[in-house]
Amino acid sequence: MTIINGSSLALILVLSTLVTCKCNAAGVPLADQTIFNVMDFDAKPNSELMSTQAFMKAWRAACDFTGHARVFVPPGVYTLGETVFAGPCKGTHSIILEIAGTLKAVPDVSEYSNFAWISFESINGVIITGGGTLDAQGQSVWQFNDCKTNPNCVHLPATLHFNNIRNGKIMRLKLINSMGFHLHITSSYLVRFHGLTIDAPEDSPNTDGIHISKSNTIKLSRSVIRTGDDCVSFGQGTNNVTVNKVTCGPGHGISVGSLGKLAGELEVRGLIVKNCTLRGTTNGIRIKTYAGENANRALGMMFSDIVMENVKNPIIIDQSYGDKSTDSLSQVKISDVVYQNIRGTTSSEIPVQLLCSSKLPCENVRLTNINLKHIENTPITSQCQNVNVGYTGVQIPSPCQGPSS
Ligand SMILES: *[C@@H]1O[C@H](CO)[C@@H](O)[C@H](O)[C@H]1NC(C)=O
Ligand SMILES: *[C@@H]1O[C@H](CO)[C@@H](O)[C@H](O)[C@H]1NC(C)=O
Q1: What pTM does this model have?
Q2: CA angle at 20 for the pair 4 and 174, rounded to the nearest 5°
Q3: Catalytically annotated residue among 93, 161, 182, 252
Q4: Mean pLDDT on 318-338
Q5: Predicted confidence band at 26 (pLDDT cuts at 50, 70, 90)?
Q6: Which residue, 28, 157, 242, 335, has most beta carbons within 10 Å?
Q7: Does residue 7 carry a pLDDT above 80?
Q8: How far does residue 275's CA lie from ligand 2's centre (Å)?
Q9: Is 15 exposed, middle or buried (0-12, 13-18, 19+ CB in 10 A)?
Q10: 114 and 86 in contact (C-beta within 8 Å)?
Q11: Among the record's GO biological process terms, what is one (predicted)?
């Protein structure tokens, strides 16, 4: 005889709901959702005809709706020019944008006024998912990127730009060949990214995977990022950000900065990067600041359980970015940085470089269990300048000799 008491009955009910629930990504039963299918707004799949207006109208209808709204993009290839999904929206539920199809950008930079192909503005509660592909066709416009020769160059449009977003989730999407950055998030709070695949050629210019600035409580996890520039970059005003289980490479690796480029920048504080793999990147974990006089600070950073595979500069603090002088006068203060359990292979003879400012030396930098090996078994060393470092555990290469400041 089986006796079912109240609590196990409740458990069974919960379990059976979990098993049978036809739910959306937010766990909302589909029956309670109102679907805004872009086809009903005159989208033109598998055509060169633009679907921009159809997408924006579907979004507008969902945004003005007060119940559970889901904008649906069925399978098919859609051509989109500059597209803006703006709030504030009327409902209190997150709007779901489910992209099952492939979106292709119009590969003409004059089409974009706002430095973004698809932007999300001033929205509280949005989930973007669906397994679809965002193909920005950057290969047709990379020739117009002159950032190598022009320090004041204008960046090409980002694939997805998030401005003033609260409470967002971006997951299960593929982004390829961005014109500028793939993802750019600014002035936002509480946004999670996971299950993303980002792909652009190793020689594509400034195609960062994700650039974060002026944002608080951002999480990126379980993603694979292969690009021609930084995998993840943390710009000014980045606070409380976690990057977990991300694979980077090719590209320039994970970067804090560049900081100190502009006057009045906001500080960077509270970064955790853990369980990541860098594969064939030029840098592993890089902190870069300009040597000039703009003040800022970057503090409270932890880089833990990172595997380097054939990385040129696995650990590097470069406070002379954009300036060749060996004695950096950077006014960006770097402190409280932990590198822990960093292992793998490098192509550099100096895989650990902590080159700080003589004006504001780095403080409280800690290296714990560093175990690197040259790909050709060449001996390796560390280099330090103007830095106060503490070492614990294994140190290969061996620590910097003598006083380092
Ligand atoms: C920092 O982020 C975590 C999630 O990663 C969150 O739980 C926590 O509340 C955030 N802290 C602050 C001060 O915003
Ligand atoms: C990294 O992942 C391993 C296994 O997945 C886990 O044991 C370890 O605690 C993780 N490290 C961090 C810093 O999360």
Answers
A1: 0.91
A2: 140
A3: 252
A4: 88
A5: low
A6: 157
A7: no
A8: 6
A9: exposed
A10: no
A11: carbohydrate metabolic process
d(CA 279, CA 203): 15
Atom of ligand 1 nearest to the CA of 242: 5
Top-level CATH class of 35-229?
A: mainly beta
**Predicted confidence (pLDDT) per residue in 242-288, tens digit:** 999 999 999 999 999 999 999 999 999 999 999 999 999 999 999 99
- Judged against a pLDDT cut of 70, whether residue 16 lies above it is answered with no
Instruction: Using the atom order of ligand 1, give the atom closest to the CA of residue 216.
Output: 14
Q: If you classify domain 232-405 with CATH, what class do you get?
A: mainly beta
Query: Do 35-229 and 232-405 have matching folds?
Result: yes
The bound ligand whose nearest atom lies closest to the alpha carbon of 242 is 1
What element of type H or E holds 125? strand 116-129
| Other C-beta atoms lying within 10 Å of the C-beta of residue 184 | 25
CA distance 285 to 354: 11
**Which pair of tokens denotes residue 14?**
């919960």
Using a 6 Å cutoff on CB, does residue 341 contact ligand 2?
A: no
> What is the 389 CA–ligand 1 centroid distance (Å)?
28
Helix (H, G, I), strand (E, B) or coil at 229: coil
Compute the distance between CA of residue 344 and CA of residue 62 in angstroms, rounded to an integer.
Answer: 48
User: Do 209 and 174 contact (CB within 8 A), yes or no?
Assistant: no
- Tokens 């929205």, located at residue: 123
> So where are the chain's domains?
35-229, 232-405
> Is the distance from the beta carbon of residue 304 to the nearest atom of ligand 2 less than 6 Å?
yes
Phi, psi of 333 (to 5 degrees): -90, 125
